[in-house]
Design brief:
The chain has about 210 residues and is an alpha/beta fold. The protein has a single domain, classed as NAD(P)-binding Rossmann-like Domain (Rossmann fold, 3-Layer(aba) Sandwich), CATH 3.40.50.720. Strands 3-2-1-4 form a 4-stranded parallel sheet, covered by helices on one side. A 3-stranded antiparallel sheet has the order 5-6-7. Helix 1 packs across helix 4. The longest helix is centred in the C-terminal third of the chain and has 15 residues. The radius of gyration is 17 Å and the shape is globular.
C-alpha cells in the first residue's frame, strides 16, 4: 500500500526538493514534516549537536545527545521514509557547496546573517518564537529579517508547542501552494492563536 494514499485526494503541492537550514526547535519539525509529506529530496544544514536541553521541544531522542543534529534528524526521517533522497551538511550554510538549487528553502537559523543570494531567492516563509510569542514572515528580504547581522544565539524561553505550530504553518503554507505577493509579517501568541481557533476572545492578543 502507498503510504500517501490517504493524502492524495487533498491534492498537495508537495515540492520536489527542499533545503532546511537550521534543524533546532522549528527546523527539526519542518524537516520531519516535509519528509512525512512526501518531499522526495531533502537537504538539512546545521553545524550543531543535540543537547539534553533540546529534548523538550524537538523530535530528537535521548540516544541522539552528542550527535550532530542533521545526522540525528536524518536517522529519524529514515525510520519513516526509506525512499527519500536525503543530504546533510553538518556545517554552517556559508561553508556548504550547494550544486543544485532546490525548489524551496526554509531558513530556521537562530541568527539573521544573510543567506547566499541564490538561496535567499528560494525562501518564501520563515518563522520564529520567543516563549509563547510567535512570528511568521512571508516573502522575507535580507533587510527585514528580524534582528541584525550581529545577532547570535541566545537562550530564549522554549516549549514544544510554539515551534510545532510554526513548523506546521510553514509546511502547510508551502504544500498548500500559497502564492502571496509582497512581504508580510504576522505576530501572534499561543493564547491568541487558540482563542481564534475555538472562537473565544483573544484577550488583547496580537492575532
Amino acid at each position: 500500500m502507498d503510504i500517501y494514499d490517504r493524502q492524495k485526494t487533498i491534492k498537495l503541492h508537495t515540492p520536489k526538493s527542499v533545503i532546511v537550514i537550521g534543524v533546532g526547535g522549528v527546523g527539526s519539525w519542518v524537516g520531519l514534516n516535509f519528509a512525512l509529506s512526501g518531499v522526495p529530496k531533502l537537504t538539512l544544514i546545521d553545524p550543531d549537536i543535540v543537547e539534553d536541553t533540546n529534548l523538550n521541544r524537538t523530535p530528537f531522542r535521548i540516544k541522539d545527545i552528542g550527535e550532530r543534529k542533521v545526522h540525528a534528524l536524518g536517522n529519524i526521517i529514515f525510520e519513516r521514509r526509506e525512499d527519500i533522497a536525503l543530504n546533510v551538511f553538518d556545517k554552517r550554510v556559508e561553508n556548504c557547496i550547494i550544486r543544485n538549487l532546490p525548489e524551496v528553502v526554509v531558513d530556521c537559523r537562530d541568527n539573521s546573517t544573510p543567506l547566499p543570494e541564490k538561496l535567499m531567492e528560494k525562501v518564501r516563509i520563515i518563522g520564529g518564537y520567543d516563549g509563547k510569542n510567535m512570528t511568521i514572515h512571508i516573502n522575507p528580504t535580507p533587510d527585514t529579517i528580524w534582528g541584525d547581522d550581529e545577532t547570535i544565539y541566545t537562550h530564549t524561553p522554549s516549549w514544544l508547542i510554539p515551534p510545532q505550530i510554526i513548523a506546521n504553518i510553514i509546511v502547510g503554507f508551502i504544500c498548500d501552494g500559497y502564492k502571496i505577493e509582497g512581504e508580510q509579517i504576522v505576530h501572534f501568541n499561543l493564547k491568541g492563536f487558540i482563542d481564534k481557533i475555538i472562537g473565544g476572545e483573544a484577550h488583547g492578543s496580537d492575532l
